[in-house]
Amino acid sequence: MKAKIFASIAVTITGAILLYAVTDFPNFGDPRSPANAGVEGGSSSASLYYIENTYRDTKVPNLVTAILADYRGYDTLFETVVIFTAGMAIFAILRVLRNEDAPSAPDPESTNRTIDGDHHRIIVGITCRIAVPLVQIFALYVVAHGHHSPGGGFQGGVMLGASFILIALSGSLRDALARFSEASYIRLASLGILIYAGVAFLPLVFGRNFVDYGALRGLLGTEGEEMARSHGIFGVELGVAFTVMSVMFAIFANLSTRGRLKGGL
Amino acid sequence: MEAFFKEAVVPHFNFWIYVIIMMIGLWSVIAKNNLIKKLIGLSIFQTAILLLYVSLGVKEGASIPIIDHHAAERSLVGDAGAINPDLIANPVPHVLMLTAIVVGVATLGVALALCQMIYKDFGTLEEDEVLQKIKALHDDV
Q: Which residue of A has its CA nearest to B79?
């Protein structure tokens, strides 16, 4: 009770201060606000530069993808590393490598029972078996078409991970692990970082800056540096998709079985 | 009162909403005793920040930050007016929040893993009971 009263007082004071500051903020939807147009008489907003020059620089119409993987390539590289680290942290915290209760462990088949009994699993299982390939094809489309439509490595990666989680939820975790084993998701998560860091590192070989994909022009055989940047962004997005997919599935598999990777939901 | 609403609340309603949601999250982080409920509070807090950033990039009457192909090609051949920044939403907040959402899910996973280990070791997720048990452990030593 004491904690609740204290919390209410603290929250009210903090909220009042924040709301007091809000009165100086720009109006909602104002195209002339500092974030959207820069400071009057001062520097222009970075977003204006992106809107006006992204297509000229990279030939990517989707500004979000171009900024994510090219202009802010460093940021995204280490965001991906954060996700990879989170996956490894969960592995380190939860994973039980030695099966301590092996003799008394129940048969894995009997622990795979779903909540509502077996007869519902036929309908759910077949529906999900039809849905999973469609989800995966759409996810690949989201990754590959991220240059021209909303999408990219993060979104497509999460959908790919969700498709494997769907297999685990509709059938059993064993089915999902048979298709996407622990060894392969750890390898794919590392491979994603390797692809990203490798594509970002290659320009250094050609004497240019880190993540300056324009230097890959000769290697990729494109007409101009813009197209080379576009292809570089695709390579990076592919790496992000691999890492995000693997880590999402790793989180689910480890959390739902308390690190045993047996039984589960 | 009506004047206050028209001048302070309505033009800034996105900021009011973000403050209210953020304070709900902060309250549950401080007041709730259960670690899972604290995590839910943290997630609500994070959502408020996502909303704040995305709402900063909104421009009235603007569309998604994807350039129309024809306009883009015209801008390359010297048509300076082909891309009108007022009609394209600010892409920068979208980029920042896109990564923040996925990183948020991954870090929430780590937090849940820690909660599972706490439950395995102490048999409870109530903060005061966990603290008591830790204290008892130290007293024994």
A: A52
